[in-house]
Amino acid sequence: MRLGRTLFVVGAIVCCVGFSMAFPLLWGLMRGDAGALPMLQAMLTTLLCGGALLLGFRRSSQDSPLGHRDGMAIVSLGWVAAGVCGALPYLFGGVCGTVTDAVFESVSGFTTTGASILTDIEAVPESLLLWRSLTHWLGGMGIIVLSLAILPFLGVGGMQLYKAEAPGPTPDKLKPRIKDTAAILWKVYVGMSALECVLLLLGGMSLFDSLCHTFGTMATGGFSTRNSSVAAYDNAYIYWVITAFMFLAGMNFSLHYRLLSGHAKDIWKDGELRFYATVVLGSTVLIAWNIWGRHYDDAAEALTQSAFQVSSIITTTGFATADFEQWPAFSQMLLVLLMFVGGCAGSTGGGMKVVRILLMLKHCSMELIRLVHPRAVRHVKLGGRNVPPEVLSGVWGFFGLYLFCYVATSLALSAMDLDIVTSFTATLACISNIGPGLGTVGPAENFFHLPAAAKVLLTWCMLLGRLELYTVFILFVPEFWRK
After folding, report:
1. What contacts 396, CB < 8 A, 6 or more positions away?
2. Model confidence over 423-467: pLDDT tens digits?
């Protein structure tokens, strides 16, 4: 692994984070709020750190193209660096009292988790809240993918970064040059964000709230500008707009590109999309039936609340229009199961990913048929094509590692005297990048009360979930560092 070039590229990523602070800084200056100075201090500090890495390792930038191991290291170190630098506005602004809290909030933003330690969100200056939501939007499509779109010096080695950062079993490359693929994905992302922002403005939201909630929706993040999240607006139109865009953000973004390219007929042929839509529709109907007459007398309201929460949970967004901890046990259990599923591969959503669940179900079905017909030769297929054995092996390996991390972290939290429900759902909420859980970290609570050690552990889980486990764990394998 080329450590010098790795740190050079990490420096470039840090500079990207620093320059992105200009938007909330300008907002704060125009509004004259108390967050402008902390944003300026954080921006200068971040650019100084990034510039130091660029200058210190500039000679290494001419090394041979990035390899697979270089990509893994850059992605992991880049996300950690972004999380640390992103915490500076909270520290300088006095929003978070400790480094642990500030890094937790920052990593939660960049990983699009949406778990928060803020107890009074509405008291925070607008510029800091805008930065908080902007970290969602940047992390949603991926800091690395953003770098590939705007930093041409990454060259051919950029594919290694894309493969290490892109969610799902296999990355979906739309163009021969990875820089072009990244640019296309970002154009779709920006276009959809602009459309949602306009629709929210038409629903009566202010420009500030529209921007922040658009950032949280398209990134499937969940940070809101209100203490009671989206429920504060009590507006069915806003609920349905956000529900629709959460569903779209949970889809593979390459499908949006195909739609815009005039290949709409091919979209429904995608097996993952059909399975995703079926799960969302089925869960929405079941929960609406379960809460109608118990918590909502009006069927339309029950359907609205159900559709919003199902879309929010399965896409790992984490917005809330209701305290679903008060819903019947059946609805709570179904929502918890959806936390495991997550969004589609190639989406901004977290979780296991729909395609992995689908492949595991297909594989299990094939094994059952093989027991009945031992001599039959069958293959797992997706989209009419055979799935290579190495992909299936990777899916089951990911599933095993995911369960191991989930159980180990839950046990560790329970050892810190957290109750069982909180331990299990807090872990699930962070490793699947969802945000709210149940117990003392439910949709009406936050993570502020947790011990510092628990916050550190959950911060680690957020990074693991966003980078799909392997990218982080590979750094702890001795073979990775050997030439």
Report:
1. 360, 363
2. 999 999 999 999 888 989 988 889 999 999 999 999 999 999 888
Sign of CA dihedral 49, 208, 437, 312: negative
217 annotated binding-site participant: no
Q: How many CB atoms lie within 10 A of CB 293?
A: 11
List 381's β-bridge partners, or say none.
386
Say whether 317 counts as a known binding-site residue. yes
Q: Is 220 annotated as a binding residue?
A: no
Helix runs in 315-451, H state only: 329-341, 354-372, 389-414, 420-431
CA-CA-CA-CA torsion sign (370, 376, 381, 384)? negative
pTM: 0.88
Residue type, 271: G
Question: Is 316 marked as binding a ligand?
Answer: yes
Tokens of 426: 């807090």
Q: Is 113 annotated as a binding residue?
A: yes
Residues 31-53 have pLDDT tens digits of 989 999 999 999 999 999 999 98
Residues 6+ apart with CB under 8 A from 176: none
**Contact in structure between 166 and 344 (CB atoms under 8 Å):** no
Any known ligand binding at 221?
yes
pLDDT at 393 over 70: yes
Q: How far apart are CA 182 and CA 380, in angstroms?
A: 30
The band of 215, judged by pLDDT with boundaries at 50, 70 and 90, is very high
Q: Residue 466 burial by CB count (10 A; 0-12/13-18/19+): exposed, middle or buried?
A: buried
Q: Rg for the chain (alpha carbons), in Å?
A: 22
What is the C-alpha separation between 208 and 263, in angstroms, rounded? 35
